[in-house]
Recover the amino acids of this structure.
């Protein structure tokens, strides 16, 4: 690794972001000199050479696990075209993820110490002249620091920029930088797509609210920031303050209570003349902005997320369902910003493991997320405790709190799904030890009965079927968010599932997994004995045994689930854990019509209910906005939270019928078995796989159904109950 030296300011600049400056000369700058800048920072950094940013990468170096044994990404940039004979390299360092609170709970251990960490920079500029002579400039005591125009920048609270501050490198006062050991992390090359400015939005509407507030609506809830442009006649010293919001309240006023303690503000003080500003080291979750006073500036919103390649598209004859598909995509864009976060707006924005595992299959249909999850799962393995416990969030900002069923199971579910989608068993090789450690941890949590293991997961604290609409009795669990599904039931079901995945992964890798295979059988037997069919109490208690193949009489159980859903008003009552699987288990056992009924339902609770309320992303709660127009509790109410968007994978795999074959991962062989419903006139799905594009479209025509299928590899196509083994190609069936 070529980054050997770290520097920091010699004094504490407080809230002000320091800029590190190095001046140098290159005699042969115009004669073919080549230059490469390698850089990273403890904090986020922006590098500028001779007044031009070296890259479009924002929020570099991204976010990785930094606990003991952690790592930090570095980036390399070709800056040859920016060289001049006399040069100024400026690298500004903000708090970013590493030196921000990163916890919504004030009592969280480790929160305040992060704020006191110094802004550190490690950089190396290598210049090769046309003569072959090399010059190397490293971060050392020859660099200088000064205060930048970024007077404050923090992920939750926003940014304050004073454009009157003179550009470093001219008349600003310099102070020598100080060498120091750095954060003590392993430096690794950039592993995932860069975070970039991906899409831009002009104002959709200018609003004066009933309270007289000046509000701009950009028409789409996004994760990103604002670009502000001031005209030529702008005078120095004008200050503008801007707040951000996802929604307006029932009266049409600006609403920010669901941001909790995140101030989420921009402050900007102008210099003379035309100028443009956009934040450097923060981001916001928003659709609306509020100006503290009228301004002659113009505004544009910029969506920022990891530069993943789009791979999946869904469309149909139902406009509301199409909007739901778009909301799923925007939920993924807004929360796949270097790590899979739970929300982009409030004082949280953390890599919750449970959210990631329920959505990973949908995510892998929508976008190429192989690199994204490979990097995040590597951090999960680093964050995992020695005893195998998986933290609730990765990177771990909660000092090792974790061990919840369905959350920690991201350690097994995510790598297995990435393997199925992309076909590279390297992800299993990388994560296999972590997968085993997780299952071994669960085993250590099991109860002992008469001196023998019970093969049940009865210990620990679990999130349950988070935000389920079936509520526990207060004496059972006062936290109603955890749902009425029994925690030992749910935990043991996931214990069996993860154990089975470890056995599958081991067989792919050629490992001896006989102990896990035997354990899996014993867990299933214990589950069936302790949670007999006929005693299931919630929708999720029916769903999990069906999806994880634990039910002894699956058809009977599925029929009882369908009956319960009907008794419940033909509506779902599931939370984060049951929702991803409910449509799958219904269609697997002959209740596809009921599955479509749930998908197409518009009344609360349903996937389309938020669409009827104007949602442009997926909500955290089924009733983030209640039917009467009021809001759910501001304490936990995100309007951009992708978990419930997991239903889209049922549309890909069942309604459109495109799925992988476990024995031929990576779409080496394709299973195509669409299941149409006359309530949709047509449905179309396209998925760009490693082997080519798979597409499935069906349409009702003249009392028949036309199926248009395209497969780049051999496939098993099931239409009208008949299965056809076909070669790569395009096929039409009319039935």
């Amino acid at each position: 690794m070529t980054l050997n030296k770290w520097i920091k300011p010699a004094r504490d600049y407080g809230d002000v972001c320091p800029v590190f400056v190095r001046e140098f000369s290159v005699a042969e700058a115009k004669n073919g000199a080549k230059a490469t800048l390698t850089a990273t920072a403890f904090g986020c950094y922006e590098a500028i050479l001779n007044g031009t940013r070296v890259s479009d990468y924002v929020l570099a170096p991204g976010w990785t696990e930094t606990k003991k044994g952690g790592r930090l990404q570095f980036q390399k940039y070709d800056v040859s075209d920016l060289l001049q004979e006399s040069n100024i390299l400026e690298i500004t360092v903000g708090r970013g993820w590493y030196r921000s609170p990163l916890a919504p709970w004030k009592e969280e251990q480790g929160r305040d110490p992060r704020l006191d960490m110094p802004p550190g920079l490690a950089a190396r500029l290598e210049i090769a002249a046309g003569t072959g002579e090399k010059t190397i400039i490293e971060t050392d005591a020859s660099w200088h620091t000064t205060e930048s125009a970024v007077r404050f920048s923090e992920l939750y609270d926003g940014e304050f920029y004073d454009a009157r501050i003179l550009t470093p490198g001219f008349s600003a006062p310099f102070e020598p930088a100080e060498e120091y050991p750095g954060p003590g992390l392993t430096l690794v090359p950039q592993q995932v797509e860069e975070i970039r400015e991906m899409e831009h939005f002009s104002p959709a509407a200018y609003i004066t609210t009933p309270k007289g507030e000046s509000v701009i609506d950009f028409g789409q809830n996004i994760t990103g920031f604002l670009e502000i442009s001031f005209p030529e006649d702008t005078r120095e010293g004008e200050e503008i303050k801007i707040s951000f919001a996802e929604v307006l309240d029932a009266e049409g006023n600006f609403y920010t209570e669901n941001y909790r303690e995140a101030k989420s503000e921009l402050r900007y003080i102008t210099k003379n003349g035309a100028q443009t500003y956009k934040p450097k080291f923060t981001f916001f979750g928003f659709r609306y902005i509020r100006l503290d006073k009228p301004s002659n500036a113009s505004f544009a919103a910029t969506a920022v997320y990891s530069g993943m390649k789009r791979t999946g598209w869904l469309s149909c004859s139902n406009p509301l369902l199409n909007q739901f598909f778009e909301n799923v995509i925007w939920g993924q864009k807004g929360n796949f910003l270097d790590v899979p976060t739970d929300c982009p707006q409030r004082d949280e924005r953390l890599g919750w493991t449970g959210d990631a595992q329920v959505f990973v299959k949908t995510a892998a249909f929508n976008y190429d997320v192989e690199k994204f999850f490979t990097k995040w799962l590597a951090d999960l393995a680093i964050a995992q405790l020695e005893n195998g416990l998986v933290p609730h969030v990765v990177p771990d900002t909660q000092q090792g709190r974790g061990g919840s069923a369905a959350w920690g199971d991201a350690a097994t579910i995510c790598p297995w799904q990435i393997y199925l989608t992309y076909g590279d068993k390297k992800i299993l090789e990388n994560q296999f030890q972590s997968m085993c450690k997780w299952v071994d941890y669960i085993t250590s949590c099991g109860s002992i009965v008469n001196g023998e293991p019970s093969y049940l997961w009865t210990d620990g604290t679990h999130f349950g079927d988070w935000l389920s609409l079936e509520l526990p009795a207060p004496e059972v669990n006062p936290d109603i968010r955890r749902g009425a599904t029994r925690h030992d039931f749910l935990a043991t079901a996931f214990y069996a599932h993860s154990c089975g995945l470890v056995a599958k992964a081991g067989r792919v890798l050629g490992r001896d997994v006989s102990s896990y295979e035997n354990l899996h059988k014993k867990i299933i037997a214990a589950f069936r004995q302790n949670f007999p069919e006929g005693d299931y109490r919630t929708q999720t208690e029916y769903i999990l045994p069906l999806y994880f193949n634990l039910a002894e009489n699956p058809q009977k159980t599925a029929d009882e689930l369908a009956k319960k859903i009907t008794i419940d008003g033909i509506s779902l009552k599931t939370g984060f854990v049951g929702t991803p699987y409910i449509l799958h288990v219904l269609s697997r056992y002959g209740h596809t019509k009921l599955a479509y009924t749930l998908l197409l339902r518009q009344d609360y609770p349903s996937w389309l209910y938020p669409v009827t309320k104007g949602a442009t992303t997926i909500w955290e709660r089924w009733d983030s906005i209640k039917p009467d127009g009021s809001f759910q509790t501001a304490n936990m109410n995100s309007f951009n939270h992708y978990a419930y968007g997991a239903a889209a994978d049922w549309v890909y795999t069942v309604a459109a019928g495109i799925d992988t074959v476990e024995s031929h991962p990576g779409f080496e062989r394709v299973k195509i078995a669409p299941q149409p419903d006359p309530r949709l006139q047509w449905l179309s799905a396209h998925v760009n796989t490693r082997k080519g594009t798979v597409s499935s479209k069906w349409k009702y025509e003249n009392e028949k159904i036309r199926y248009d299928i395209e497969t780049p590899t051999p496939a098993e196509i099931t239409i009208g109950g008949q299965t056809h083994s076909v070669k790569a190609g395009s096929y039409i069936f009319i039935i």
User: Anything to note?
Assistant: The radius of gyration is 27 Å. The domain at 670-734 is CATH 2.60.420.10 (Maltose phosphorylase, domain 3). The chain is about 25% helix and 30% strand. The chain has a mean pLDDT of 95.
